[in-house]
Amino acid sequence: MASEAYASRSTDEVHTDVLFQARQACYKARDAFYDCLQKQSDKKPTELGCVGLLYPAECKKSRLAYENSCRPSWVKHFDRLYCKEKRVQRLLDDKETRGGPLVLPQKGV
């Protein structure tokens, strides 16, 4: 009888409120770290994050909070997105300084 009651309980129960709170904490820590990167953009980056992301020592505390609040795969994913966005922005900025705005060719013309 006791084993039947134990077997009937779902061990795969998902606590969505806990997952939601963990995601929100991760997003908050991520945003704080990337805000620090923007504010400290004039400082020389000396610290190395994952996927080659360099950041200044002034952001080390927020980076640790970010890494502790998020899953490692999420940190890697968000860092990749950030680096990609920065790379695209640099390319667009460079294109504008060399020859005006970027004009894409139109099909059928």
TrEMBL record:
Highest taxon of the lineage: Eukaryota
GO annotation, cellular component aspect: mitochondrion
Keywords (A to Z) from UniProt: Disulfide bond, Mitochondrion
InterPro entries: COA6_pln, COX6B-like, CX6/COA6-like_sf
Annotated compartments: Mitochondrion
Name the record gives this protein: Cytochrome c oxidase assembly factor 6
Organism: Linum trigynum
